[in-house]
């Protein structure tokens, strides 16, 4: 089973702007990171799962890791965004590993995710012990 990673879609206003950016790069979208993930070999066949508004909402398959001239690393993603069943995920800096068995399932082409509370509301309800 391939290893995946999660990352905040921090420059994305919505899932639509994320899709436009990822799918608008013909050679693949490029994410930059300071360090090569130690478990990068396990990520062959894995995906980068996008977090938007405190929910994992989509994924992009990882093509490769490529070192830049300045020592940083580019994560090259396939130019496609696959919607997944939305799942609450607390925000974090950088990226985090996610095992395949913990990953949300892909949605069928015409399937929509069930109702998911907005991340901020869900966080407040969680603090009150209501969710």
Automatic annotation (TrEMBL):
InterPro entries: UCP032025. It comes from the Bacteria. This is DUF1489 family protein. It comes from Pontixanthobacter luteolus.
